[in-house]
Amino acid sequence: MSFRTGPFQVVALTVAGLLLTGCAGDAGDAGNAGPPAARRPANDARPGPVGQLGSRAQVVPALEIPSLGPRIRAKITAANRQAVVVVGNHPNSNQSVAMLYERDPVEGWKPVAGPWSAHNALLGWTDDHRAADNRSPIGVFGLTDAGGRLPDPGTKLPYDQEPAFDAPGTGFQGESLEGSFDHVVAINYNREPGNTPLDWTRPLGAEKGGGIWIHVDHGGPTQGCVSLPLARMKELLRWLDPAKQPVVVMGDAAALGR
């Protein structure tokens, strides 16, 4: 899958090698004892006693997800091997870019899809989401449950198909909301994982909002959710694997870079 540069760029990560100097000597090197011919610089590339080159071991750090600072990275555990990264253009912007990353056990995080255009809440982002504040919560949240009005497109997540995934009315820009909940993935903000996205249990209390989903884009800002085009939603659902404990990492670029 190709990766294109979208209108909003994801910050590139520079990966530097850490060089550890190895030794190619013999027992006579200890304490500089022995004849001069037995002592060589540690980085000497001449053949050793068994005809092998002296070497420098190179350690390459595992790749991290670009644009994420230490505070956000600390919230991603070793068990999380899939990440949907949604980066907002500005703290008050309702437009963002989504990328899918998967963790290789040796090489670290690698991009597997994106960048995709996305929408978030009308007024942008917040560290303290409240009901009806029209801002999307910033943070790292699990993705464990899916559903929609249309049949399961092939996800490994539990999928609840219900007519109740209805989206009547119009959005903030007068656009129709019809079909917005044809496919959704519940974002585990102020909800009980393991239940249908339609479950309205709010562990943090109703005043902290809830019902934050990834759902089908309707061409305008959301009330708090993240939205993707229909084809991208299907791709996302087919990719998510509960065995890899997927998370969504979401917020504006400045907040995610902390």
Automatic annotation (TrEMBL):
Signal peptide: none annotated. PANTHER family: BLR0621 PROTEIN. The lineage of its organism: Bacteria, Bacillati, Actinomycetota, Actinomycetes, Kitasatosporales. This is L,D-transpeptidase family protein. It comes from the Bacteria. It holds the Pfam family YkuD. Residues 31-49 have a biased composition (Low complexity). Residues 115-249 form the L,D-TPase catalytic domain. Residues 31-54 are annotated as: Disordered.
